[in-house]
Structures are given as C-alpha cells and as structure tokens.
Automatic annotation (TrEMBL):
Keywords: Oxidoreductase. This is NAD(P)/FAD-dependent oxidoreductase. It is an enzyme of class 1 (oxidoreductase). The lineage of its organism: Bacteria, Bacillati, Actinomycetota, Actinomycetes, Kitasatosporales. It comes from the Bacteria.
Amino acid sequence: MTEAIAYDVVVLGAGPVGENVADRARAGGLSAAIVESELVGGECSYWACMPSKALLRPVIARADARRVPGLRQSVQGDLDAAAVLAHRDDYTSHWKDDGQVGWIESIGVDLYRGHGRLDGPRTVTVTAEDGTRTTLTARHAVAVCTGTRAALPDLPGLAEVKPWTSREATSADHVPGRLIVVGGGVVATEMATAWQALGSRVTVLVRGGGLLERMEPFAGELVADALREAGAEIRTGVSVRAVVREGGTVTATLDDGTTLDADEILFATGRAPRTDDIGLETVGLEPGSWLSVDDSLRVQGSQWLYAVGDANHRALLTHQGKYQARIAGAAITARASGVPLLETDRWGAHAATADHDAVPQVVFTDPEAASAGLTLAEAEAAGRRVRAVDYDLANVAGSGLYADGYTGRARMIVDLDREVLLGVTFVGPGVGELIHSATIAIAGEVPIDRLWHAVPAYPTVSEVWLRLLETYRG
C-alpha cells in the first residue's frame, strides 16, 4: 500500500474557485494540493465566462456602433462568424491549460490530475486516467470546489438527440441555421443574443412568463424587446414535451402539441452540483447534494470540510465563488494558526456576508442588464420597509452621447428605516460598468445623505445616480 501524502489543505477542483482557495492557503503559509479531472481553469475559462463573453463582445460592439451617428453606416454588414469563433478559441487558449498549470506551479501548489473522491475524514483518493491511485490527507481542511454542470430535463431519448448545453453553446465550431433555446435565464438570453447575431434563426422557449425572472421585471422585458427586434422569436408559457433528431434536424414537441424544427437545441434549464461522485457518503453526506455551509464556507456540522463556489448554492457566479475562496482561505489559515475567528464581525475577513446582501451580476445581452443586492420583490418578501425609485436612462445626458435612441431604465431600492440602499438594477447599453458603484454603496451601507455628496462626472451615463437621488428626495 502506498503511503498517503499529507498536505495542510487539499482542494477538489481547479477552477477559479479552487485555484483561489489554494492560493490563499499558500499565502497563509500552508501547504496545498489541488485535484482536477478536466482542464485546470475550470468551467469559467473554457465553457462559460470567457468563451461566452468572447462571442458576445463583437455583437455588443457592433450594436453600440450602429447607434452612433457617423459610424453606423460603416458597420451595416454581417459579423464575420469565422473570425468571432477564432477569437473565442484564442480566449479559451484553444482548450489547453498549459498557462493555468504554470500558474498553479508558480504559487507552490501541487497539482494531481485525476478524479478525486473523499475516502473518509480528511482523506482524498485520486484516480488518474491510467488507473493509478494516490491518497492525499489534509491536516486542516478539504475544500470542495467542484462547481456545477448543466441540469437537463427528464425527456425520453434526450441523450440520443445530443442537445447543446452551455458547454456546446460556447464551444461550437459552426453557426447553426436554426437554433432552439429552452430557458429564459442568463445562459439562455446571452446565447440567444450571440447566435442570433452570428446568423442563426433563434427561437426561445420559456416555461415562465418572461426572461430573466430573478431580476426586476423590466430587465427581462427590455431584453426580450431587443431580441425580437434582432429577429429572434420568443414564446412564453410553453414547455418541451419531447425531442427527436432525424438526420440533421431536431424536432421539439411542445406541451400544446405543436412542433418546432431546428438544427440544434440548447437546454439552458438550470444547474446541478457536481457532488454526485466525490465520496460524500464516506463522511455522512448525501451524494449529489448542494452542501450547506456557514459564512466561513465550512460545511455545516464539520470541522474540516469546506464547500466553496457553486457547490454550496449560495451564488452561482464566478466572482462570488472567488470572493468565497478568499474568505475560506482566510478562515482555514486562521483556524490552522489557532487564531479565533471573529464570527460576530459581519463584514470581517472570515464572513462571506456579501453573498447575502450585495451580490452583483451582469447579463451581457443587448441591452445589458446589471444588478446588485435585492430586487423590490425580494426586499418586500424579507419584510423590509422599502421604496423603489425608478429613472429612465434615456433622460441622462451621457446616454444620448453614448447612443442615439438610448433605451434603458434604472431602479434603486431604499431601506426607509435605515436610509441605505438594498438593491440597484440598471438595464441599457454599457450599464455593466456602472454596477460596481452600486455594489460599493450596498456593501458599504452608505447613507443616502452621504451618497448625495458622491458627485457623478458629467456627461456620463453614471449621472443616473444623481437623477435617482433627486427623484428620491422629491
């Protein structure tokens, strides 16, 4: 029997979250190993954030240019789809992880290639592709950073259809003539935006009443209007009952009995945790489950197991996962050093408070939709006494300079008892770059009276802050 190799911290998953946990552990003076069965860099680098935004950037740039007088005439042609796909390939490093592996090595973390499974407390067994097994033990912590995978509906014969998930949608090497997109969330709207602009005839099928239903209602409405104007068809209140593929054609049967043909079908219907085959049962946890954690990202009831990023279901966003990784790394290091955690310090180094109060998100559609904190519905459901303040972004001086016919909307949610912001939503061209100011205001609990003295530069779209505050003051 091979002797186990001991580390202070063992990390399952070498995506951005796992990389950051390992990095923070090493920065705190701990030894660390990281285990990865696929590409180092994870979902974000190869099948999510980077390739999707590489596909969308030319789409958004062309749309913005077409709204500028004197420039629109120069950008009336079609996108060069081959060049866009090649640019996407460059951003994914052509699905090679040499650079990421080099970074792991540069910070002094040992990388183990293979499938990692818990094998009892503080123990991980790694099975390499050639079947060899290595046992790792953790003196202080094992961090589960295995992320999520696409959740597919239970439809007969779906596997034989070979549907697209987010992975295929971001890595496809051709533009399908007809594309069905099932879902109305972030992946669905971004991929509908990208592929419609690249030349597909897109039909979006939404089970609910509209797009982006976790954001303020106007966000989904404005994005839907733009998709329709671009040529996409959006059907709401429908579900797919069956799917078959004959030759190169996919036929979807809807719950009303109608059928729809396409060359490809993308299911963007949610995410599931990649925790089904990591040995959770060996430590008394349910395989395939989301892992419940405290604010230091330690799994409830455990003294050594952490779940960081998507696996804990707190906020399925890369930037929040990396934030959690910094918190977890600090907590693991503090506990290993015998330093007491200031768990009562809500905004301290060991508490992932922003997961509750100040989560930012940008949907890179045209127009962009960006939010931080709570929506009006969420704030009211939480029992807060609030007021929603709305403003038409078209009436901000900077928006008219940004684009002819600028269409957009802003909303801030004010806690009337404390006079601070609980949430902000912007929808419109370029608003993704506004959202960090909202995140700072929410996380910093900046009083409204203090925000009044944060003067936005003129003439910029950020002048909307002044207009929102003026509207609130009346």
